[in-house]
């Protein structure tokens, strides 16, 4: 990594990336990440990191493990060598990693990303993984399940060992033998079962001597009775070792056959781990992907230095390269000038490394071939370099490298020498860098550079904000306004004697004083304008929220009003119909009693009851259908009395209807609206006069007649069913005539008239009219399923 990137502390960012990697290979790759100046590659790398972040947010991080580098072991196995159980276990771990990544991506609902090409190359081998897991217990032990032969051999060894122990246990428990033994335990020497015999009884136990204790008091003897059994166990153990070696060779051969795929998948898993480590780093930094270009334009919104505490760091807005080529940043010490420089350079370097950066959406950053930096004090006693000399050496090197594809960051340019000469030198350096086409950011305290930025096109001032009230920096970067150093104010707050500060103020030249005063006034005006803008924005948001709330409340009220009105109307109509049915039943009963008794006073009572019931119905109909809203024709008076056949407009319902009966004495009338007939007060009705039709030069009124002759305009559509239940006979016949006319005009051949059963008067009137109507061919009563005696079916000509 070159010294400029180290100055920007890119190495610390890569160390943070290393900590998020899961294995050594990925850590090595992370440390080797370097900025790339190729636009397409940078965009591609950033896109893959961004898509890894999106996948992690949607489906969680993939299950990466600390897998080992199996390339060498796999290649050795491919060449026919026998590798260790440790190497085979590492290969099994690699196979598990491949399988887990393959399964994770398969569960991502077939999401296509730029990382899909890596996931598609993963080749899990479930068969080999299962065999390795089944065969190896540890790096020193093969499992019984590795092969049936190995399991059988081990069963025989265990059985022979148990039998041999039983024989020895019997000898140990024998009272005669016990007195010869040092202890009542069976031990093993050189892989053979032996008894610990006291040295003085050596001749009392026949057998083979295998060992002697360190003191010489105990001799380990293999009794002759178990020599053959021990020999059998040793033979079986030899067979076991041969089978283990055969199993290991077989596992090595199968891993060797799969070596090329293993090595390739190892690299793919490490590469995927790197992209998801980058995405995890982006999540921790709350980073996003900017618009990436190569035009030298930087536009950062709410940018934060990634190495500062995100809870304390103040975001800055920074732009360079679009409206101006050079940015001169001024302001007090510890105000954030150097941090602004480092933020711009480090975020550019991170983007070129394929890392997302902590900025808000809408940010834009360019790739550069060179990021050239002179930040910090590099004085050297050994090299006899002062601060000024070290800065000068760096600037000379930068001048020789900088071109139109370079970003140059210079901290305290021209400092460390005479202020007049230093300022003049700084202006000359800035001019040269601008001529070279470099994008340039410079921090300074020199007044001359502030004036230079004001007077020179393509150069802009910026300042780090300083609060005069608290005498502390706010760390905000204000582009377009030069900053004050505020040395006097800061010194006074630190306890500098007032007389020294007063004398110092007097020593400052008038030109500098006037410039500082102008800058101070500009700063005060800017702060006031920002405060007013914030207040206006707050008021605008409050007004928008209040308007939205009022609109929502109004919509809710309208909805509730309509729902409540409809609910009330349905309830009222239900009550009316229920009351009407109960009243009809009562009247029918009274009619029956009247027929039985036929008393005069009783008939009078019945008539009075009908009258009261009728008045009650009228009141309930009016209540169930109230006029809603204000009446635009309030005070309207009917131009004449309504009569049957008049067209009227129902104000509260907004519909037209036809008067189907003469008004009664209480100003109620029946109005037919489609198939529905309702009794309502005439105050709700507006008379609709029929339009005049001009024939030749004479106006003729359009008249409605019972027949079809003379009707200028009729409806061309009709219905097949007429419900006249509850109507008086003459009213029902009137509706029947209109219904038949509409049916004939609509070419309907079969109609149904619902008249109900009741007393049978309405049915008789209907049949009489149908019998004499010229358009009726035949009629009959309904059958079961059609309404029976309550319905008449008529066939039209």
What features would you describe in this structure?
By secondary structure, the protein is α+β, with helices and mostly antiparallel strands. It folds into five domains: 3-125 and 258-285, MutS, DNA mismatch repair protein, Chain A, domain 3 (Orthogonal Bundle); 146-253, MutS, DNA mismatch repair protein, Chain A, domain 3; 291-508, Rossmann fold (3-Layer(aba) Sandwich), CATH 3.40.50; 627-655 and 662-704, no CATH class; 718-796, Ribosomal Protein S8, Chain: A, domain 1 (2-Layer Sandwich), CATH 3.30.1370. It contains 22 helices and 27 strands. The strands form eight sheets. A six-stranded mixed sheet has the order 12-13-14-10-15-16, with helices on both faces. The chain has a five-stranded antiparallel sheet with strand order 20-19-18-17-21. It has a four-stranded antiparallel sheet with strand order 3-4-6-5. Strand 19 and strand 20 form a beta hairpin. The protein is flat and about 140 Å long.
Provide the spatial order of strands within the biggest beta sheet: 12-13-14-10-15-16
Cα Rg? 52 Å
CATH class category label of the largest domain? Alpha Beta
The main β sheet shows up as: 6 strands, mixed
Q: What is the number of domains?
A: 5
CATH topology of the largest domain: Rossmann fold
Average pLDDT reading? 80
In CATH, the architecture of the largest domain is: 3-Layer(aba) Sandwich
For the record, give the distance between the C-alpha atoms at the N and C termini, rounded to a whole number. Answer: 103 Å
CATH superfamily of the largest domain: P-loop containing nucleotide triphosphate hydrolases
Note the beta-strand portion: 15-25%
Helix proportion range:
40-55%
Shape: flat
Total strand count, please?
Answer: 27
Q: Helix/strand-derived class?
A: alpha+beta
Stretches with pLDDT under 50, minimum 5 residues: 379-384, 693-717
Q: Count of DSSP helices? A: 22
């Amino acid at each position: 990594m070159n010294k400029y990137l180290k100055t920007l502390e890119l190495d610390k960012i890569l160390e943070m990336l290393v900590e998020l990697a899961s294995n050594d290979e990925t850590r090595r790759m992370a440390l080797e990440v370097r900025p790339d100046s190729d636009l397409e590659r940078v965009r591609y790398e950033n896109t893959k990191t961004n898509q890894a972040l999106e996948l992690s947010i949607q489906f969680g991080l993939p299950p990466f493990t600390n897998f080992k580098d199996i390339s060498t072991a796999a290649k050795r196995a491919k060449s026919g060598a026998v590798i260790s159980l440790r190497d085979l276990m590492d290969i099994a771990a690699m196979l598990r990693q491949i399988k887990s990544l393959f399964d994770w991506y398969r569960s991502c609902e077939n999401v296509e990303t730029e990382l899909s090409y890596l996931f598609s190359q993963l080749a899990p081998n479930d068969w080999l993984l299962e065999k390795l897991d089944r065969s190896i217990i540890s790096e020193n032990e093969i499992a019984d399940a590795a092969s049936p032969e190995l399991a059988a051999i081990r069963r025989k060894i265990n059985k022979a060992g148990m039998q041999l122990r039983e024989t020895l246990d019997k000898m140990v428990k024998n009272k005669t033998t016990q007195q010869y033994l040092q202890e009542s335990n069976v031990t093993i020497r050189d892989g053979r079962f032996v008894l610990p015999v006291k040295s003085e009884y050596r001749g009392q136990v026949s057998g083979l001597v295998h060992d002697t204790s360190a003191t010489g008091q105990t001799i380990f003897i293999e009794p002759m009775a178990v020599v053959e059994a021990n020999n059998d166990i040793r033979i079986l153990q030899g067979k076991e070792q041969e089978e283990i070696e055969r199993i290991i060779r077989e596992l090595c051969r199968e891993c060797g056959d799969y070596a090329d795929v293993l090595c390739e998948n190892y690299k793919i898993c490490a590469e995927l781990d790197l992209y998801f480590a980058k995405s995890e780093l982006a999540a921790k930094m709350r980073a996003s992907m900017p618009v990436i270009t190569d035009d030298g334009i930087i536009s950062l919104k709410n940018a934060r230095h990634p190495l500062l505490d995100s809870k304390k760091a103040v975001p800055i807005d920074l732009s360079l390269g679009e409206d101006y080529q050079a940015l001169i940043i001024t302001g007090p010490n510890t105000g954030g000038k150097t941090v602004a420089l480092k933020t711009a350079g480090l975020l550019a370097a991170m983007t070129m490394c394929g890392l997302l950066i902590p900025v808000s959406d809408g940010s834009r950053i360019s790739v550069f071939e060179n990021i050239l930096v002179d930040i910090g004090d590099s004085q050297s006693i050994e090299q006899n370099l002062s601060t000024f000399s070290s800065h000068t050496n760096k600037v000379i090197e930068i001048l020789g490298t900088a071109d139109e594809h370079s970003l140059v960051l210079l901290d305290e340019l021209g400092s460390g020498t005479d202020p007049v000469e230093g300022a003049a030198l700084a202006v000359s350096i800035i001019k040269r860098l601008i001529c070279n086409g470099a994008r340039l950011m410079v921090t300074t305290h020199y007044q001359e550079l502030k004036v230079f930025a004001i007077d020179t096109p393509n150069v802009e001032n910026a300042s780090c904000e300083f609060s005069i009230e608290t005498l502390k920096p706010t760390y905000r970067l204000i582009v377009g306004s030069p900053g004050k150093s505020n040395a006097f104010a800061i010194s006074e707050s630190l306890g500098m004697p007032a007389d020294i500060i007063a004398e110092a103020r007097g020593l400052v030249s008038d030109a500098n004083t006037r410039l500082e005063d102008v800058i101070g006034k500009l700063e005060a005006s800017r702060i006031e304008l920002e405060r007013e803008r914030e207040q206006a924005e707050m008021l605008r948001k409050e007004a928008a929220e209040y308007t939205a709330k009022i609109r929502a409340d109004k919509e809710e009220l309208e909805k509730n009003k309509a729902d409540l009105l409809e609910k009330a109307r349905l309830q009222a109509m239900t009550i009316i119909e229920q009351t009407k049915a109960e009243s009809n039943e009562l009247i029918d009963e009274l009619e029956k009693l009247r027929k039985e008794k036929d008393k005069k006073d009783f008939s009078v009572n019945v008539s009075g009851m009908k009258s009261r019931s009728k008045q009650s119905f009228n009141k309930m109909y009016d209540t169930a259908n109230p006029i809603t809203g204000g009446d635009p024709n309030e005070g309207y008076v009917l131009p004449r009395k309504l009569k049957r056949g008049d067209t009227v407009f129902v104000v509260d319902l907004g519909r037209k209807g036809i008067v189907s009966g003469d008004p009664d004495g209480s100003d109620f009338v029946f109005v037919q609206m489609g198939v529905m007939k309702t009794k309502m007060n005439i105050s709700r009705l507006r008379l609709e006069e029929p339009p005049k039709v001009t024939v030749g030069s004479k106006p003729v009124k359009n008249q409605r007649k019972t027949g079809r002759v003379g009707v200028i305009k009729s409806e061309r559509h009709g219905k097949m069913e007429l419900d006249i239940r509850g109507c008086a006979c003459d009213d029902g016949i009137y509706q029947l005539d209109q219904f038949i006319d509409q049916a004939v005009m609509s070419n309907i051949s079969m109609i149904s008239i619902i008249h109900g059963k009741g007393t049978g008067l309405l049915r008789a009137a209907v049949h009489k009219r149908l019998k004499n109507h010229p358009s009726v061919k035949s009629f009959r009563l309904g059958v079961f399923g059609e309404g029976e005696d309550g319905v008449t079916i008529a066939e039209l000509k």
